[in-house]
Amino acid sequence: MDIDIGLSRIRRRINGATRVLALDLETLVKDGFLKNESIVAISVGTLQGNYDVMMADPNNYNEYDLLSQLQDFVDSYQPEVIIGYNHVSYDITLINTKLVSLPYSKQLFALKFFFGTSYLLDMMYACALDMRVKTGDYIIRSLRKIVNSEFYNELDLMRVKENIQIDGMNPAEAVEYLWKNDAKKLREYSLGDVHDVIELYKSIFKY
Fold first, then answer.
1. CA gap 146, 82 in Å, rounded
2. What are the CA-CA distances from residue 154 to residues 51, 147, 200 (Å)?
3. How far is it, in rounded angstroms, from Cα 169 to Cα 160?
4. Is 34 left (phi over 0), alpha (psi -120 to 50) or beta?
5. Does residue 3 carry a pLDDT above 70?
6. Which CATH superfamily includes the segment(s) 6-204?
């Protein structure tokens, strides 16, 4: 694969788009990734600085209501580009597995439309390409490593990945614990992901 043209190719595709939406999910992973895990929070952000975190009530869990709220946000914003960090392989794929199982009367057609017509840009690869320019190496890195990299020190990032680190718990267990016991901290963590992805996008693509 010739990655030298990567960022230039992406710039041509986004072509100065102004309606850019960032998306991130928080899920309860029990049996592994993409095993129909439950979505407990959805965070979204826009290039214009409009953010929201939709969180399910642990005492009255309703995943469909979460997806409906996401549809309302997406349909109102009508994104040209949807970004995230590994969201093409995970977040959007998981949502699509939920959508295809819905009865016709509950289909979320607007959400499916924008997932199908917006340009899906995975910032995991965009950051790897940008870091290659800076370091000479093309390496896929975690979002935690990216936001804490010296090369992005000047950016106004929230850098809240540590919120999910709880002694004796893996990340999946920590998400479930925070969802049930400290929703404010989980909300900040979820918001931080989309905020930082938006800021990285603006920096790399010169907005």
1. 19
2. 22, 10, 11
3. 17
4. left
5. no
6. Ribonuclease H-like superfamily/Ribonuclease H (3.30.420.10)
Mean pLDDT, residues 196-200 taken together: 98
Is pTM beyond 0.85 here? yes
Cα 82 to Cα 51, 74, 147, distances in angstroms: 14, 10, 20
Q: Which of 159, 153, 150 is nearest to 197 (CA)?
A: 159
Helix pair 6-14, 123-135: axis angle to 10 deg? 140
Task: Indicate whether 1 pLDDT > 80.
Answer: no
Query: pLDDT class for 4, splitting at 50, 70, 90?
Result: low
Q: How far apart are CA 79 and CA 157, in angstroms?
A: 23
Q: What is the DSSP letter of 105?
A: G
